[in-house]
Specification:
This protein has about 260 residues and is α/β, with parallel strands linked by helices. The protein has 2 domains: about 1-85, Nucleotidyltransferase, domain 5; about 120-240, ATPase, nucleotide binding domain (Nucleotidyltransferase, domain 5, 2-Layer Sandwich), CATH 3.30.420. The chain is about 35% helix and about 25% strand. It has 6 helices and 10 strands. A 5-stranded mixed β-sheet has the order 3-2-1-4-5, with helices on both faces. A 5-stranded mixed β-sheet has the order 8-7-6-9-10, sandwiched between helices. Helix 1 packs across helix 2.
Length: about 260
C-alpha cells in the first residue's frame, strides 16, 4: 500500500492507496515545530492498521519536510520513497519565468487534473491557506495562474483589523443581503470568494481561448472548497483528493 502525504501551510492530508483506489484519507493540523518523532507518533497511529510498502510526499513547509525526511529514514528505512522536488520525474513542463518558484503541490495538482480531464485545458482552483488558480494546457503543461489570500486568512485579517467585527462560522447565510453583522460577514466571505473565482476563471478562459480551442474544465479542490460549491458558477468538478491522486501518479512515474 502507498502512503501519500501532502503537507500544506495549514493542514496536512494523508491518504492510503491500494493500487489506484484511495482506501482512506485523513486531514490533520500542520505544525512546523513538530519533530520527526512527533510526526511518527501522529502518522504512525493513523496508518497502523495498513501495511505500508511505499511513500509519496510533497510539502510547502520546508521545516516540516526536513523532519519528514528524518522520520522516513528512521521509521520507514526500507520503503521506497518519492519526494516531489527537483530531479523527480513529474511529466509536467513548467512554462513559467522561474520554475523553481512553483510549489510542489501545484505541480502535483496539474498532473492529476490533466490525467483525470485530458480533453482540453483545465483550471485547478485550490482552496487552502491561499486560493490558487493553476492553469493547465491540453498537453498537461503548467502555464501559470493566479494566487489570492485564502478564505480563512481573509476572515482572520478582517477580525484582527476591524474593532467591531469578529470571526464568524463560515456557512452560507439566509440571503446575500445580511440582516445582521454575522450574516453580512458570511455573505461577503462566501459570495465574495465565489465571485472572485468566477471573475478570475472568466478572464483566464478569455486568454486561453486565444491559444486553445474549447472552454477549460474547472476543478475545485482543497479543504475549503465545499464552502463555495454550488455558489461559484464556474466550477465543473469537485475533486477533494486531487493532490493525493497526483502524488500516486508521480510515485508510479518514478517507480
Amino acid at each position: 500500500m502507498l502512503l501519500t502525504i501532502d503537507v500544506g501551510n495549514t493542514n496536512t492530508v494523508l491518504g492510503v492507496f491500494e493500487g489506484n483506489e484511495l482506501v482512506r484519507s485523513w486531514r490533520v493540523k500542520t505544525d512546523a515545530r513538530n519533530t520527526a518523532d512527533e510526526l511518527w507518533l501522529q502518522f504512525g497511529a493513523l496508518v497502523a492498521q495498513y501495511k505500508i510498502t511505499a511513500l509519496s510526499v510533497c510539502s510547502t513547509v520546508p521545516a516540516t519536510l526536513r523532519e519528514l525526511r528524518t522520520m522516513m529514514s528512521t521509521y520507514f528505512p526500507d520503503l521506497r520513497t518519492t519526494i516531489v522536488e527537483p530531479g523527480i520525474k513529474t511529466g509536467v513542463p513548467l512554462l513559467v519565468d522561474n520554475p523553481k518558484e512553483i510549489g510542489a503541490d501545484r505541480i502535483v495538482n496539474t498532473l492529476a487534473a490533466h490525467t483525470l480531464y485530458p480533453n482540453g485545458p483545465a483550471i485547478v482552483v485550490d482552496f487552502g491557506t491561499s486560493t490558487n488558480l493553476d492553469v493547465v494546457s491540453p498537453k498537461g503543461e503548467f502555464l501559470g495562474g493566479a494566487l489570492a489570500p485564502g478564505i480563512e486568512i481573509s476572515v482572520d485579517a478582517l477580525a484582527a483589523r476591524a474593532a467591531q467585527l469578529r470571526k464568524v462560522e463560515l456557512v452560507v447565510p439566509r440571503s446575500v443581503i445580511g440582516k445582521n453583522t454575522v450574516e453580512a460577514l458570511q455573505s461577503g466571505t462566501i459570495y465574495g470568494f465565489a465571485g472572485q473565482v468566477d471573475g478570475l476563471v472568466k478572464r483566464i478562459t478569455a486568454e486561453l481561448e486565444q491559444s486553445y480551442p474549447g472552454r477549460p474544465t474547472v476543478i475545485a479542490t482543497g479543504g475549503l472548497a465545499p464552502l463555495v460549491l454550488g455558489i461559484a458558477e464556474s466550477i465543473n468538478h469537485h475533486e477533494p483528493d486531487l493532490t493525493l491522486i497526483g502524488l500516486r501518479l508521480i510515485h508510479e512515474r518514478n517507480a
